[in-house]
Predict the 3D structure of the following.
Amino acid sequence: MIGCGSFFIARRCLDSYCMKNTESDRRNFFRRIIQGASALLMLSSVGVLLQYLKNPLRSKIQRAKICALSELNEFQPSKNFSIGGVKGIVVLDNHKNVHAFNRKCSHLGCLVVYQNEDRQFFCNCHKGTYDLTGKVIFGPPPHPLSKLLVEISDDTIFVTAESEALHRYS
Amino acid sequence: MKSMSEITKEWLLDRVRPFQSIVEYLSRKHVPQHKHSVWYYFGGVTLFFFIIQIITGVLLLFYYQPTSEPVLEKNPVTSSKQTENLLFELQSAVEADSSKAALLRMLGDQPDARIKMLYPSGAYASIEYIRTQVRYGWLIHSLHSWSSNVLILFVFIHLFSAFLMKAYRKPRELMWYSGSVLFALVLGFGFTGYVLPWDEVAYYATSIGTEYPRALPIVGEWLVRLLRGADQVTGETLTRMFGIHVVVLPLSVLGILGLHLVLALIQGSSIPISIRTGVKQVPFFSRYIYREFFLWIILLIALVAVCYFFPWELGTPFDLLQPSSPPVGIHPEWYFMFLFQTLNILPSRIAGIDGILIGQILFGIAAAFWFFIPVLDRRSARNVRSPLFTIIGIIAILYFIVMTTWGYISVSQH
């Protein structure tokens, strides 16, 4: 039905396009059809390609034990960790509160380091500097460090982090 | 007012003079038209499917992981503190050193498993990921698998039609030789690509396929080891076949295919000896090219339709550490069936010699005969009809069809 219909329409188009109905007109029409079809195919292929290349990795929320609370003190107030690809740090502030941050600098994504003598986070790449609450105090970073959820139970520190789309299989 | 293409052409020719003569040559090129000229299109169609294989193959490479190592996952955290500590250690161990994966897989068999195995191999898992998670991944995977079969089908048609039209005769011997090598390389693609999903059928088909050369004297053992990278088919084989499939064969094909195509452009299509009069000439640019494009578009649409309605399936995953028995009625792909069936029907010993060895020697002689046809067929080299070689060609086709059919019938009876 559809086939017959499209054939009929194509035939009408062909007839109206080639009023003179010469061979070269027919050939031109055929050529146009092929060019049009290739263009359409190319366009849809590019669409498929772009969708295909977008890797559909899944993010995953993970909770992990970092260390015992008693391990942190004023001489060694921080500990680095990695949960599902998220590089984080826990740090003890002056009021003995524990904070956890993602170490990714908000400027260009380098990993910040904790400097105990100045009680600050420092990024070696472009000198971005954050205080112990994650606020920017110097340099180019546009946003504070992102915080991670901290829980303390029975002297143990747990951190929950959402991995940044790293998993193929869940 | 000049059109865009004319401006581009002038710009290019002003800068690269030699193009002028090439363009002039190609614009004068004609393709003969006669009652057998439909077969000329199959070379181009084969090329088209090869291009599809390159594109989809590169796309699959973005996600495929050629490893037989299992994919593991830790079980959800339990309340026990001890379990949590152990989990943490195991997790670190997995992250630190993947070779411990095998040990952890054993743990996965325990009822209170802390680590469970998601897939027995990364290779299978990655194809499953492409098929089920990646957008249009099923399409790319199906296109690559279906198109490989269609490509080989068209290679067979192109080969046999060239044979029967005696297109190998002087001055086109080089096209025949390069085409024959391409034929072998395409079969090599089929064989090496077959193992990559690392499912049961792929594993055992490769085990059987790489076992045949062992019958050869002196080099047999060495050849088997060379193909497998080990005594058995293992993860080493997978790595090796992957390397051959994505680097060695493509590089070899590109050079020889380039030669084959340049020769085709320079020498043009061969007109069969039987056709003496009534040959029309059709300009290659752009009348012939447009017809060929038209065919490509139709075939591409048909291929996508096949992939949509019959997406390519994966078999049962193969677990190297807990191998299953070969599935009942295991057989190679259709294009190897005639070889498989021939070796199957040979008795185990013929006049005191290993039957498989005899089979391989016979196939070796047949392949050499086929390759050196341009030298052997003296009559057609002088442009005289040679019915003997037509009969040989028809026998070869019949042999292929009969043996393939017989192979499928005997496999289905098991």
Summary: Chain A touches chain B through 21 residues (CB under 8 Å). The first helix of chain A runs from residue 2 to 17.
